[in-house]
Amino acid sequence: MTLITDVRLRRILDSRGNPTVEADVVTESGGFGRAAAPSGASTGEYEAVERPPSEAIAAAREDAVPRLVGEAYAGNQREVDAALHAADGTDDFSEIGANSAVAISMAAAKAGADVLGAPLFQHLGGAFRGQNFPIPLGNVVGGGEHAADATDIQEFLVAPVGAPSVEDAVFANATVHSTVADLLEERDVPCGKGDEGAWAPSIDDREAFEIVDEAVSIVQDEVGFNIGFGLDVAGAELYDSDAGTYEYSDRSRDTDEQIEYIAELVREYDLVYVEDPLDEDDYDAFADLTDEVGDQTLICGDDLFVTNTDRLVEGIDRGAANSILIKPNQIGTLTDAFDAIELAAQNGYDPVISHRSGETEDTTIAHLAVATDAPFIKTGAVGGERTAKLNELIRIADDAT
Ligand SMILES: O=C(O)[C@@H](CO)OP(=O)(O)O
Ligand SMILES: [Mg+2]
User: Fold this and answer.
1) Low-confidence ranges of the chain (pLDDT < 70)
2) Cα–Cα distance between 312 and 302 in angstroms, integer?
3) Shortest-distance Cα residue to atom 1 of ligand 1
4) What is the rounded distance in angstroms from the CA atom of residue 309 to the CA atom of residue 91?
5) Structural domain includes residue 190
6) Residues 6 or more apart from 143 whose CB is under 8 A from it?
7) Judging by beta carbons within 10 Å of its beta carbon (0-12, 13-18, 19+), is residue 343 exposed, middle or buried?
8) Domain that holds residue 262
9) pTM value?
10) Does residue 332 sit within a domain?
11) Phi first, then psi: what are they for 261, rounded to 5°?
12) Do 157 and 138 touch, CB atoms closer than 8 A?
């Protein structure tokens, strides 16, 4: 029933207006799945390779499609993803492109679910999933590579850890987002939005901390449950490897100072989540910071681990973090992403499922988070391509997918 009979690939627009790859997978019994690849701006050096979409599509049509059509079963995700690896033949998907690979991998999963008549999260995670929901990390102020003339730290995130339901959590994040706008207006700070829908004001990090902290306490009082505060520092983007320093607009910090700075922020703002506080090559500095504050907060590796089990094994051996960001397009297939999630969970690392700064209306990551019982999902707070995933979580909770 799930034998793949057709794979179609096309270029569509992503949220930045750039082309990306969309895949349709059709099965023998008429099962259908459609998925699209997202795209990063602050990409990790060790990510699988995204090729220009027209090249990725041409290469996948030539090498991958013949290994899938009439050959692989959409219901057998490992087989589909193994065929993609075999078609590619490299260890970083530089032949068919991680963008073609991930679009096909996710579309096949949806086609498999369609044949079964089951929601995607259930097809991926089994009959007993769907009881627990991830806490959404909502990006309310941002800068770095996602917006010009804004904060140095890439993302100021809110985490409604005390929300009684995923719906309450999603609405709380949107309320913090609009409260931040009110506070910016009170201070006469004009601002637009960055790539992920976060406000991108021309203020320094210190002021952003003040504003987000205030917005969080206002909304917390309003909703009556606990809302935490987190960051994606995107440390690799701040790091100058020649000088060995982290370059902020107002000053430089060497690695020890960076560790101390982040540890102080964790204590001052009671941060529940800190992603990529340090450079993507510096496992030791990650380990030092984790030693210092890992019992109070999540230290999450994004560019550090790039959803790659080899890099995660090294991180586990060296005590580099206690959490891993999971982005299927960083590694190219759902199988690889699942393997990273399983390895993380077995070793006490919390998996956090994540969007990219360039996104589409695709909702696969909402299902992936529920399928794997992930404690957090990072997928913005507002903006159509972000709310597509958040609204899908609400639908999953309402049994309406
Ligand atoms: O750094 C990140 O975590 C992501 C998503 O927020 O950004 P990008 O997709 O640009 O890598
Ligand atoms: Mg990141």
Assistant:
1) none
2) 10
3) 42
4) 13
5) yes
6) 149, 150, 151, 152, 153, 154, 194, 200
7) middle
8) 135-397
9) 0.98
10) yes
11) -60, -50
12) yes
